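Contributing new records

If you add data, match the layout below exactly. Sequence lines come first and carry their own label; structure lines follow with theirs. Keep one chain per record. Anything else will be rejected by the validation script.
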Amino acid sequence: MTDHTTPRHDESDAGLDAVISERRRLIGLAYRLLGSLAEAEDAVQETYTRWYAMSRRQQDAIASPGAWLTTVATRVCLDLLGSARVRRERYVGEWIPEPLPGRTDWIGGRPGTTVTGSADPADRVTLDESVTMAFLVVLESMTPAQRVALVLHDVFGYPFAEIADMTGRTPAACRELASSARRRARAALPPETPAAHQARLVREFKQAWEARNITALVGLLAPGATLTADGGGMVPAVLHPIAGGEGIAHYLTDLAVRADGSLRLLERPVNGRPGLVIEHAGVTVAVYAFDVADDRITQIWVMRNPDKLRPWTADSHR
């Protein structure tokens, strides 16, 4: 006698697994759009809440659960971006995206697509590049609509027709939004520096900082370099960016003098690029991300906000 219930059970499990397997990709999408892992996880949780609120018949009627989840997650993120702008107007000091430990290999693109398959390869941002602090900061300067169009198309490989369905705009409007966002990114971002080259500069920067060598620090920093710190009003941090290599070098040297050897500087990947983690008594108190151009450090982003350092536990970045 043939058991007709088993295939149905297997099909149900396979469908559930397919839905659950989308979570990592959805978090990767939401993180790029929101610049916060905590907010990204909340957005994805809300997306799944809406999925499981539907009846089984409604779920079965959806031809592509992955596309449905992506659409809902995108719309949830758009709503959050609108409220985030209001919250950030009240934010104490500078707001910068939340840094993540490691190479962020867990953040993937659209299944079955390649993010480098554009007719013009320059139109697309690779997955690694799209989670660097520099790229996330540029995304933050865009309108929510520009950000969504660029990330969905250039990073995750969605065609503009599908993006139009997700956002309620026309394909032509989405294409123009992505194009304007791409122009802004190209104007703001220098050519990508090889990771090994950036690692060398960060190592030399660390050594100069530990030695309190102002001259060496100035030599590693571009004359027009900028340091931006985010303390969120919870811990001490400079409220406004420090501009100029000499000013940054003096500021960092003063920090080292006041710390009097109590800080430990560790070379660690930050958003897939070489960076530094600062520990005090075994606890991560700051994360430094860098941007490099023409053999000099041009940007330093310092995360001090404890809420944004939660992914940096003692074991997560080792």
